[in-house]
Design goal:
The complex is a heterodimer of chains A (about 550) and B (about 475). Chain A contains 22 helices and 25 strands. Chain A is an alpha/beta fold. In chain A, helix 2 packs across helix 4, helix 3 runs antiparallel to helix 4 and helix 17 packs parallel to helix 22. Chain B is of the alpha+beta class and about 475 residues long. Chain B is built from 18 helices and 16 strands. Chain B has a five-stranded antiparallel beta sheet. Chain B has a four-stranded antiparallel beta sheet with strand order 4-5-8-7, with helices on one face. Chain B has a three-stranded antiparallel beta sheet with strand order 9-11-10, with no helix packed on it. Classes of the chains: A alpha/beta (about 550), B alpha+beta (about 475). The interface between A and B is medium-sized, with 31 and 23 residues.
Chain lengths: ~550, ~475
Amino acid sequence: MTDGPLIVQSDKTLLLEVDHPRAAEARRAIAPFAELERAPEHVHTYRLTPLGLWNARAAGHDAEQVVAALMDFSRYPVPHPLLVDVAETMARYGRLQLVKHPTHGLVLQSLDRAVLTEVLRSKRTAGLLGERIDEDTVVVHPSERGHLKQVLVKLGWPAEDLAGYVDGEHHDIALTPDGWELRPYQEHAVESFWHGGSGVVVLPCGAGKTLVGAGAMAKSSTTTLILVTNTVSARQWKDELVKRTSLTEDEIGEYSGARKEIKPVTIATYQVLTTKRKGVYTHLELLDARDWGLVVYDEVHLLPAPIFRMTADLQARRRLGLTATLVREDGREDEVFSLIGPKRFDAPWKDIEAQGYIAPAECVEVRLTLPDGERMAYATAEPEDKYRLAASASGKNRVVEQILAKHPDDQALVIGQYIDQLHELAEHLDAPLITGETTVRERQRLFDAFRTGEIQHLVVSKVANFSIDLPEASVAIQVSGSFGSRQEEAQRLGRVMRPKHDGRTAHFYAVVARDTVDQDFAAHRQRFLAEQGYAYRIVDAEDLDDTLDAERAS
Amino acid sequence: MGRDDPRRGGHSPLGPRPDAHRGLGRAAAAHRARRRRVVARTLADDDVQDVLAWTTPRAVPPREAVAGVWRGAELLGVVALGTLGAPGAALLAEADGGSGPGADPVAALDAVLPPEVDDLLLQGDLTGIVPGRPTRDLARLLDDAAAIESRGGALTVRFTLDSVTRALAAGSAGDADTLLAALARHTRGSVPQPLEYLVRDAARRFGRVRVGAALSYVRVDDPALVASFLADPSLRATGLHQLGPTVLAAHVSAAELRAALASSGVSAALEDDQGRTVTAEADRPRTVPPGRRRGRSRYGTPTGAPASAPAERAARAAGLVAARAEAVVAELRSRDALAHADAGWGRDGAVLTVDRPAHGDGAPTAGAIPTTERRTAAPRGTTPHGTTEPGDLLGLLHDAIAEQALVSLETVDARGVPVTRTVRPLRLDGGRLRAVDPARDAELTVAVHRIARVVPTPTTPTENA
């Protein structure tokens, strides 16, 4: 029995005591194969999952390494069945390999005949595989490469894709580091991705994922297709690429609802790709419009299902996924694994924050007691209306005003879900409002004004959640949110987490109606943020003034 | 199999220490020692069984018993993976008369268990982790106040509103301050603010809905009346206590309470669970505490009781003139006589009226006056055969539901034919009566308008004979 920092539970969670002298060492040892589940102050919880173990296997780690890491750092004897399970799970990856055969093209090769037989007999692989060349080799229809990988993950025998990639059309791209350079972790991420072939890079919001994308493009120096969530995001990618790389504006095309340009580097939105007309995806030809050497997926955790299907046909091209979190609300993490690739780089938020690249954020939940009249209305409301009633409680306006008064010099964002409420708030605060109805041009104008400090307060609806860049927002106030989704929280915190030029602390406030479903949803958020390692406090609206003043004084 | 069975003369293979059977003699001790050695050397319980059968063919313990002992020994760590563990070796050494640290099973067991940890790491996400085996004290605290998330080398728990509320409700953790103090005692740093808030929030929410037991209640419109009831010494025995500005609860039945109120000069209307005024046979105790029901015995002749002192006092209190009280008594007597004369329903009828004076402890008898008076003023459908009056009928059914008593129910079936059955009413609601027919062990639902007559059935018929 050693005095290690790690406790291995038989339910496959690993508890890492962060204050332990060997904690950092242990973290490095387990990070490749264990998913960080939560990272509160004292003890971080990692989980061993098949996907995580396969990710590690794909990155070149083997079961012995995993077992050794667990045994070395564990404080108590490691449960034996868990070690056996780790070894067995990891051994499943790579028993089947997708390789290029000199005469037959793409083939599935097995190192274990029984596995191949099992897979061949499965109904799911019917139609994906062709003729059996010998005992250990089966022809794969090239068009089904992605689909086959998906099926194999589902069957529990993930295949290692060694078939390589097409080179793609060459196009010179270079980074132009004048006065800036890739941060060490960004460089590390680019390297890891490139050596792995295809895969996902996980970095928190504000950690410069766009630059990792640019770095990968420079490395590849081929024509690139970039898929992003929306038009605003597309414009930002374009600006950033023009600024950071040798690419000029003429070389970058935008393929969206408004414009349909195809250039050596093309930025397309998910929406335009998934647009259907008469049951047919009309913009699919974009994927074959050029001989793309690299496909970049921004915000992989939001990738819509049809894109997965299209990606299944793009398996011969290098794919880079960028995201802040691998967690998908729809639980399709395995599709990301099989179609885009294993995780190639991951850094816990807190670590990057400690390195000073992200402003530390402080989270405060303000609990508002509803007046009797509203409580009665809430109590008698239909279940489906309850959240709306609680979330748009009238008292929230005053609380928001109070909070803003506490931060007279800061740029503040007020974020909400219900348009009526936001209209009212905007009027109340005399601040401009951005909703889904605001035109792109107007949005951009307001964002620019916000950026320059011309506008101090901005009220935004859900549209602001994804991929907009508001570097100077150091205060965010959330008045209503979408049912406490984890992914949305990550986005919202990302809004205020961008590096501040003077290193100030960012503040995140959530205004919540007491004793309502609003509070229950807030509990999810609290859990998420605390799990991410953020200081989280709960304050009563009545005590708001005192608490914040006391804080300022200290 | 933990005990020896003297009748069979066999002993459990890993049974109690030898000094427990000092009287068994040397041969037996040697025999036991041989058995122990057998156990110690044998690897699997199947082998143990075979060896035991070979060495003591006439007293072979049953196979399941050996397996059970073996399993127990494995759980205790005496044997593990088919071999003897350190505690097992110590046990054996001690049994063979050895001494010193090698022969102390308690110390050996202690050494095998990981050390107890009295250290709780509390985190901002409302989880807590004990990095090891918690002390008994800490384990109890966490069992009470948190939900266990995972066990193993460490214990991880999560505090939720439910778990904290549960702890507060169970009372074992005390109030919010005690609970927080207990958590603070076990944790190295301070209790995280969100957790403290959670505990206080749970404590705040906890007392909001309360439940208590009461047999009856008083509702008034005037809060001043409430104060006067609470101040009235003659009502003290009813256990009246205030629930709200205009609501009081009592520990006595509605009838007794009503009677007690009447004796202090307040005539109260009786209402059902819908808030409607009930004009039933309120003179009969509406709910009889089970203890008292048994105590009710065969009092003297029914005719003597109504004139008892409490009844008169009650009559005075109700502001009735003496003459009127006399009239009431006369009426009662005539009814009682009638009841006894009645052949078919007499016994049941007697329950209604005779039983009342039999109470004799004042309050319920006093309660008889107003109803009887009403009867005198307007004698209606109430007969000694129970009742056919719809209003009274409902009252009787309510009584029966409250007492879980049997009633004889006469209903009119679809063809207009009266049917009588003895049932136990369960619920009266929305114009329907739900009742159980014990004879057929079936539940039935009857529309109230189909009920023609309700006759209470005495619990023990001989009681009133």
